[in-house]
């Protein structure tokens, strides 16, 4: 009963936090569309993959080092307390690369991403400001991961929710009453992780904290260990950008701009849906790492079964809600009542989101492999679902079935990944 109560607490808080973060991204897009119109949205969409990379690196190192910290600390390894400092040093170094590009070459970066002169003029200050804060975004991910692994899921949730709410409120204040436009949007986004870190620090500086910042010589070996088990988090972030690029390219080649807009609706809905399962996996991970490190394999198996069961139930419920309310969801993003857009999105929503039933299981499976230090298996699942299969099936099915083949390719890729995952789980993996 104790492990089930812990599971319910950690998972519910992390789902709430992740959904809150996804909603702030939607709000950011909405305010920019109202303030800057098409050019603003174009600029934002072009730099979104950079967000994915920055968050992905921060999450990979943060979650990976927190997992290694939890496992090695339980095993009384003196090396455990070096992982936090190591994560902060390397995220700072990597984040500074983005800072330098943002400060000195935002125009060149935007042009490389496909922007024309009008989009560059609209988006260069936004790009400059948010990329300057690259290290801060990464530190925020590290702080959140260590809070979760230090038995403070409430602090992690509050950090995510409050910083997201700050972003939404100040997006509006800076963009409209103060008339700062894209600069205001960028500044609100850049400052929100500062608040998130401050909230996490309230835990680290309290008597409840078990995390100590031990200054050690930076170690590439610790970094590699962290990245190996955190790879699924990185792929989870980056694959969204890759999927968007691949889908947009294929849809443009077979249909056109309106169908791309239909995919935009699907992608916005998916952002919130996937956040639910990321919250579930992030919430369960600290408990799995703790009990795996302590050799409590029965608890690990209980957590695995609970996670898979809850993910399946949630995915079925979410798919039913989406299926039954597809027209309402489409209408939110189709303010001009474009019938062609409605036609593409109506069937697209129903076909595409079949994949969440398999995706929910795959997200949990990859997280369990990471949490139990099975980096190879975590990498296989993450790469299959994040890059390989979705590209292959999208290419093949679009040739065979046109646009409907693109919609169903997501489910096909996730389904094959599920099959591979259960093969890996069946190979006498005592930990999972």
Describe the overall structure.
This protein folds into two domains: 208 residues, no CATH class; 202 residues, no CATH class. The two termini are 20 Å apart. It is globular and about 60 Å long. 53% of the residues are buried. Helix 2 packs antiparallel against helix 5, helix 4 packs parallel to helix 7 and helix 8 runs parallel beside helix 14. It is an all-alpha fold.
Q: What is the succession of H and E elements?
A: HHHHHHHHHHHHHHH
Number of domains: 2
Biggest sheet character: none
Mean pLDDT: 86
Low-pLDDT stretches are none
Structural class computed from helices and strand pairing:
mainly alpha
Rg, Cα atoms, Å: 21 Å
Helix coverage percent: over 70%
By DSSP (H or I, 4+ residues per run), the number of helices equals 15
Shape: globular
List the topology elements.
Layout: H1 2-74, H2 82-104, H3 106-112, H4 117-132, H5 134-149, H6 153-175, H7 181-204, H8 220-254, H9 257-293, H10 297-324, H11 326-333, H12 339-352, H13 355-371, H14 375-401, H15 403-425
Helix pairs in contact: 1-2, 1-4, 1-5, 1-6, 1-7, 1-8, 1-9, 2-4, 2-5, 3-4, 4-7, 5-6, 5-7, 6-7, 8-9, 8-13, 8-14, 9-10, 9-12, 9-13, 10-13, 11-12, 12-15, 13-14, 13-15, 14-15
